[in-house]
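Chapter summary example: a protein plus manganese (III) ion.
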Amino acid sequence: MPFELPNLPYAYDALEPAISSRTLELHHDKHHRTYVETLNKLIAGKPLEKESLERVILESARDKSELEIFNNAAQHWNHSFFWHCLKPGGGGKPSGEIARLIDRDFGGYDGFAKSFKEAATKQFGTGWAWLVLHQGKLDIRKTGDADLPLIDGQQALLTLDVWEHAYYLDYQNRRPDFIQAFLDMLLNWDFANQNLANPDQWGDPHRHAAE
Ligand code: MN3
């Protein structure tokens, strides 16, 4: 099979109490696994089977008839990326290069947190909130369903899954509380700094656009 479910970079209970072991196990072992297995079935025997995940996403994004492939490929990418955006004992204010850029582009951490919370709260229904780098500047985005910044030529630095399966067992309808827990207890600023230092690691959108 061309694509595989990556292991979580921490134990199921490592993010408690912000995310319960039960939520993380279902989210990774059921939801993420289903995206990977469905994607592999959909591309079996097709030319896309031999492509990188980023190419599968970009190719299927251009063709409405490939929406099911796009949705499952993008959800595989989004979740693989998302697991690294969380860390035990994370959250709080950033340090390093990302801190410098947040001061420059949002006027400080509070400006970032306000914009991020607003995007994550207002994303209607299923989707994702993102911190992206676009033309050298940080920005906050929200996307619906499986959509991701890669298809718009933007580099993802961080994301938060705001589909209900990410928080409903722990927070029910209180999505804002889940977002606040992400900001205060989980957010992995080290990962954002790694993405700034190494844009190719998660598929530099400019490199892919040029192929
Ligand atoms: Mn999810």
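Key point: DSSP finds nine helices and three strands in the chain.
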